[in-house]
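Quick illustration for those who missed Monday's session on complexes.
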Amino acid sequence: MKQSVDSLTISDSIRELKERKNAIIIAHYYQTPEIQEVADVVGDSLQMAQHAAQSEADIIVVAGVYFMAETAKILNPTRKVLLPDTGAGCSLADSCPPAEFKKFVAAHPGSPVVTYVNCSAEIKAMSDIVCTSSNAVKVINSIKTEKPIIFAPDVNLGKYLIQQTGREMVLWDGSCIVHENFSIDKILDLHTLYPDAKFIAHPESQPHILRIASYIGSTKGMIDFVKRDSHQQYIVATEAGILYQMQKEVPHKILIPAPAFEDNTCACSECPYMKMNTLEKLERCLRNEEPEILVQESVRKKAVRALNAMLELSAIPLQSISMEV
Ligand code: 13P
Ligand code: SF4
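Prediction with 1,3-dihydroxyacetonephosphate bound:
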């Protein structure tokens, strides 16, 4: 990767600050290549949570979005958790306000509550167990009661889980603005140009997109799949930031980002929230040790139970479980 002199200087400063302050940077695959390069860990949501939970660093900088930083703080409350830009939200988390979700849960008495990690600390506090895209099938299969399972906030992942597990589920109607934006017509057109390419997708995508996928999994699951699979070309339906690590893992394979609808409000398959973090903001936040992410202790105590239930089930440490169809 070519870096400008400025970004090299900033990266050097970030490395020096990390060392001096005993800090680590945990980044998501959707972050920019420069941020991934200075990170100590790059992973999917489960890996990020696992690393945050086990970290002995004094400062944990989460290069991701707000719910990821909150998750780190919930799991490791004695560390200082920083997020370079507190405006880095998530359409899924925003779709599920706590007051409305409380009523939704109350309308289904006795139903277990499973929530996708892309939600606020308050929503996690109302949950029996959390899941990520890499362990969601396992989490649903672990629920023993016959009652319908409440699942929030991603309706597309929820539909996929119903199809995979055969369980009755009551779904909250939230979605990811990036994964809802893939165009089936454009994907099929692209496939005529690359007939040997396998189509792989993230389960936040809509059912008609998932129906044509050869592999469905978390970001880490998708990277592992292209590593072990013998094909040479892939059309990849998730946020485009994943292509950086994926290409590093399979330098000789051809990776093609899945096309999205033309939409002036959204920059193709880039997550505007994830891309709010920049190298400059990362350096500033490490230097000033803010913005710090805090979670009210009464909320944290409830939320940590649901997160720990998930981590206990994801028995293999620091590794994600992926789904193949
Ligand atoms: P994973 O990396 O856990 O698959 O999640 C994708 C995502 O959209 C995170 O916001
Ligand atoms: Fe949320 Fe989608 Fe962005 Fe992930 S990619 S942070 S799910 S809006």
